[in-house]
Amino acid sequence: MADPALRFEAVSFAYGPRPVLTGLDLEVPAGSFCGLLGPNGAGKSTLLQLAAGALRPRAGQVSVLGRPLAAWGRRELARCVAVVPQRFELAFPFSVLEVVLLGRLPHRGPLALDSARDLELAREAMRATETLEFAGRRLHELSGGEWKRVLVAKALAQEPRVLLLDEPAAELDIRHQVALYELVDRVRREREVTVLAAMHELNLAAAYCDRFVLLRDGAVARSGALEEVMTYQHLTAAFGIDIYVGVNELTGHRLFTPLVRRGGEGA
User: Fold this and answer.
1) Which of 199, 191, 183 is nearest to 48 (CA)?
2) Is residue 1 part of a domain?
3) Across residues 157-168, what is the average pLDDT?
4) Measuring CA to CA, which of 112, 192, 201, 258 is 20 to 30 A from 34?
5) What tens digit of pLDDT does each residue of 172-203 get?
6) Residue 264 falls within a domain, yes or no?
7) Residue-range definition of the domain harbouring residue 219
8) In a domain, 61, yes or no
9) Domain assignment of residue 266, yes or no
10) Helix %, strand %, coil % for the chain, to 5?
11) How far apart are the first and last CA of the chain?
């Protein structure tokens, strides 16, 4: 059996005295589209930063593509792992094309100029994310949703083997949410990329992911296939609210709707 793309073994992490992850064990199969679910504060973003090497665990070990994270060089890891963060700030007024080309930095020498292949891959990523029309604009001129699509293009230009997404559909309208996940899923299948995405959109997670991890209080509450994780019992316990679980009669996909009581009964 092939090594998982990501493995967390007894991983703990804290910000100062505040524990965020405690003794977390998790494997993300190679080639999977894994949805990382859970309420705010459950540790989703921290787990992604640990997988990217941006944070180091206080205890335990993180492995990427079968190798402990500590054994990877920074540039070598950046050739294999790309991240789409919730927030992204630049000190200089780069154009959209220049931002997407940042994804090519790990693949060339520190003083090398953009090659024809770099430009080709950047434009291909921008076409795929419908951001090519913004190529000459500055990031501060874009809406939040347009900005997020540019960050996805930057990650795709990086040609990663592992793609980490932190709330990738935030600030996107429903059309672009669907288009984004369609794109990510197509890239995953065509390029054999492993995707781990922190998501709040339960219905979109059920539609596109083939693996699910439900975090609660800094630990894995459940992981596995949809039927094992996304149940009324598990989701209600994790999110602290009743969530109706149904089935779309047209597609067979599961549907998730919070149950809101009206008439003064409370939620």
Assistant:
1) 199
2) no
3) 95
4) 258
5) 889 889 988 998 999 899 989 999 999 999 99
6) no
7) 6-258
8) yes
9) no
10) 40, 25, 35
11) 46
Q: Tokens standing for 22?
A: 């405690």
pLDDT at 134 over 80: yes
pLDDT of 170 reads 83
What's the CA dihedral at 122, 123, 128, 130 to 10 degrees?
110
Burial class (CB in 10 A: 0-12, 13-18, 19+), 247: exposed
In this structure, what token pair is assigned to residue 15? 């910000």
CA pair distance 124, 174, nearest whole angstrom: 23
Domains contained in the chain, number: 1
Domain containing residue 88: CATH number: 3.40.50.300
Residue 30: DSSP 8-state: T
Mean pLDDT computed over every residue of the chain:
90
Percentage with pLDDT > 70 across the chain = 96
Structure tokens at 166: 């932190």
Residue 267 reports pLDDT greater than 50: no
